[in-house]
Amino acid sequence: MTVNRRDFLKLAGAAGIAGAAQASSARAAPTNRVSDDWMGMLTDLTLCEGCRKCEWACRGANGLTHDQPIDDYDDKSVFEQRRRPDAENFTVVNRFASERPGENPTNVKIQCMHCFEPACASACLVAAFRKTPEGPVLYDESVCIGCRYCMMACPFGMPAYTYDDPFSPAVKKCTMCFERISKEGGMPACAEICPLEAITFGKRSDLLALARSKIESEPDKYIDHIYGEKEAGGTCWMYVAGKPFGDLGFRTDVGTTPYPELTKGFLSAVPLVLTVWPALLMGAYAFTKHREQLAHAEDEQAANSTTTSEEGIHG
Amino acid sequence: MANHAEAISLKQWVRRELFFGQSFGVYLKSLITPFNIVAAVILCVGLPIAFIRFTQGLEATTNLSNDAPWGLWIGFDVLCGVALAAGGFVLASAVHLFGLKDYRPLVRPAILTGFLGYFFVVVGLCFDLGRPWRLPYPMLVSYGVTSVMFLVGWHVALYLTVQFLEFCPAVFEWLHWNKLRKWVAWITIGATVFGVILSTLHQSALGALFLLAPGKVHPLWYSPYIPVLFFTSAVAAGMSMVIFESMLSHRIFKSRTGDHDPAQLDRVLLGLGKGASIVLLTYFGLKWIALAHGQHWNLLLTKYGLWWLVEVFGFVLLPCLLYARAVRIQSVTLVRVASVVTVLGICLNRLNVSLITFRWDQSNRYFPHWMEIAVTITIVTVGLLTFRWIVNRMPVLSDHADYQIEDH
Lengths: 315, 408
Ligand code: SF4
Ligand code: SF4
Prior knowledge:
The structure holds two protein chains of two kinds.
Chain A (H helix, E strand, L loop, with lengths): L4 H13 L2 H5 L14 E6 L8 H9 L30 E5 L9 E5 L8 H5 L5 E3 L5 E3 L9 H5 L6 E2 L9 E2 L5 H5 L6 H5 L5 E5 H14 L19 E4 L19 H46 L10
Parallel strand pairs in A: 1-9
Antiparallel strand pairs in A: 1-8, 2-3, 4-5, 6-7
Chain B lengths: L3 H4 L2 H9 L5 H7 L3 H23 L1 H4 L10 H13 L2 H11 L6 H25 L8 H4 L7 H28 L2 H9 L1 H21 L17 H27 L9 H33 L8 H26 L3 H25 L13 H22 L17
Helix pairs in contact in B: 4-17, 6-8, 6-16, 6-17, 7-8, 7-12, 7-13, 8-10, 8-17, 10-11, 10-12, 12-13, 13-14, 13-16, 14-15, 14-16, 15-16
The structure holds iron/sulfur cluster (2 copies).
């Protein structure tokens, strides 16, 4: 990754005491909160039947191990365990049984949410993540040092790591098929293969309107909540469902504040410490010194008049 | 002043300074002590594991997972390591900036511990990083200026340099590099001020790292106040480490401690104990303010709530009262007991935040692999060996015979 001029200037400031520049640039995360240009995805959980073809397609599109034929994905036994995306599966489908007998289970496909203001990007100390103007959040392996702070920070716990790779371990996560969608008419692999069209790809603003109209036209089928509209400050990937999201394995405690805000207060206190501390400390030093000189002068006076000897600690 | 080092041949110098005037064979024999045998066994286990870690990867040696990206190496080696190494900046500022010259004999050991502490924190970090050889990337290649981790990285690097500079006078005295010694002594004040600023920032920044993990860190430990909590507790930890260490080093290195008046040392330790009790009281108060701010009173009666109370009463308030009592009855022994409890308590806090309560919502929780534990023990052992090697040779616990103490 090359250093552009702006970064360099930031660094020039930062290099002084490493941090001066931080607060001023703490807003480097995109702040154009709802960009009409952003692309996104809408997953309708009432439609998904759990065929897991999206998992198969995702592996193919991302050059992951892809040796299992698509028919193997019909195996429903994987649903016995709750899975999470990992280095070989950027997306996984989990099945949540319904409490009411006879009612269909809900299948939930999860992957990186492509946040507006990604926690992963604000956490990375080498700026390996980038929110593209198109919407996807992309990761650049070539600068990553492997501290895994991005994984600590992601509100949805999505990034995975190739722990088994000794020499070039890397973070792995969904890219919203950036390559494919950059081409005219391209679709993310999962959306393209979905036989039930449970995943819709498009401009995020259009998807939001679509989600709203679904909920309005069939209020019995959908709950009145678009997951991702506001979660963690808003995400490009959104969901509608027939059940509360908390029952479907979604985190409901992520709030609506963009995650980078959480550290902004701290980062903006940094310049304060940098300016106030030296002054205070040097002041303390000057005061001490002055006091010592006075004491010294008095000592000398005393020594001149009487012959007292005082046992000095550091004599 | 004639240079000592030039007056004797290199061979003589090596023999006198490195092998305490013994021949190499005798020196080697003198190394066979129970402590060294234990250390050797630890290294025999630890070094091969280090080899496996760097050739087979993290999967082979750790229990880290996608849900638990940070384990013992961050939770203990880095978080506890940095907190416990805070003694260096606390004492340097007390002596050099606030003129508390009584503490002077403790400054060098504290700075040495600080320096080695940070150095081995970085060693531990290298085990943990996926690609440790890219350690300088945040300084040289790509700048994630919105990241608290970026701040931590820069500060630890700079602070390591500062502490090295602060310790240099001892090294130069040992080597009799007089000109250089004068020069570095002159920059001590600047280095101290810079060091205090850096410490304030990165001690709190280590806490601020967790600001991005609400819901993952248990709400009783997650708080917007976490940077302040980390800083305050690090000051207490640093002071306690100095006390703790003075007990160990003065007992073990008796021959090197020179003619410091033991009564004076006791007075100094009691003074430190008083300071530590005040800091701990502040920390205790801050813990409750953070709790009140989050309004998590209801959580106190849960399993984690009780654990929180154990930490706050057993490992913050208790040592605070022990310190206070020790000062009242002028008991150095009790001060030392309190220092041990404090150190354990701060470690417990760091582990609670980063490991024990982390992802408390999940059933499948992280527990360190035995190899992770072995590596941690190995790093601590190598740290101790290095500390001993230096203390036995350089003027750390006592002033070098050839040098008068100059006050700054
Ligand atoms: S879901 Fe996680 S990995 Fe994806 S953009 Fe948001 S913070 Fe980053
Ligand atoms: S693991 Fe890599 S991408 Fe993630 S925060 Fe660390 S350096 Fe950045």
